[in-house]
Amino acid sequence: MLAGCVVTRGFTQGPDLPPAPLPAYRPGDTFQFDTGRVETVEAVHAADGTVTWRTGGGVVSRRFASFVVPRLEWRSGNNGGRFVTEDASNDLWPLSPNSRQAFSGTLQRDDGVAGLGHGERLSVECWIGATRTVSVPAGTFDTFQVNCMRRSTGSVRRSRLYTWYYAPDVGHYVVRVIAGGFGDINQRTELVRWVRMEAASDG
Fold this sequence. Notes:
The protein has about 200 residues and is mainly β.
């Protein structure tokens, strides 16, 4: 079974934080991680609360501003996919110790040959853990620990615990950890640098 949270090196108990509103991304916002991955906001769609992103590797995706929801659609060359859901949203926000969210959907992948398959069914449960002060290459930040358990109920049953450490001062997560079925850390990503665009002036 998976542990209820993931705490790793460079993390200490954080201070009490006021509720954090939904990230307000703007076109041009850029986040670079220690894996070499660079993500840039291309467009913000206020009507449905989604954001279009482009990576340095050329992957274009659209997702909710709430990063806990899998990408709604993505494309890289001939490959791509989508997450079809009826109940996912930005409802986990504003973040506070009482924030909870559950949703489900079908993850479909397109290999460029067979087209979109039947996919796998995912059920997701999210909750907020303790605040943490974390140190990463980009600096030291007070964060909310955001946990989501993703369970596949398709032909291959598996569970993954996703943990993001969201820094209100950055307006994005500064660490993401993905743990496998035995609580071992399979993947850890840390923020190296970021650029946030200024809001448009009314004048």
